Fold:
Amino acid sequence: MAERLRPIIVVKKIKKHAGHHGGQWKVADADFITALMAFSLLLWLLAMVSPDRTI
Structure:
């Protein structure tokens, strides 16, 4: 028992995947599609209003 045991050191490396953005592109895409739908509805409603009607 005279010899001393050295502690075992375990190094764990955390691997981060490059290119994964947590799905933020889905939120941006949904916002863009919503804005595009609102714009198309606005254009459609403006096309439905008769030209002789003034505000």
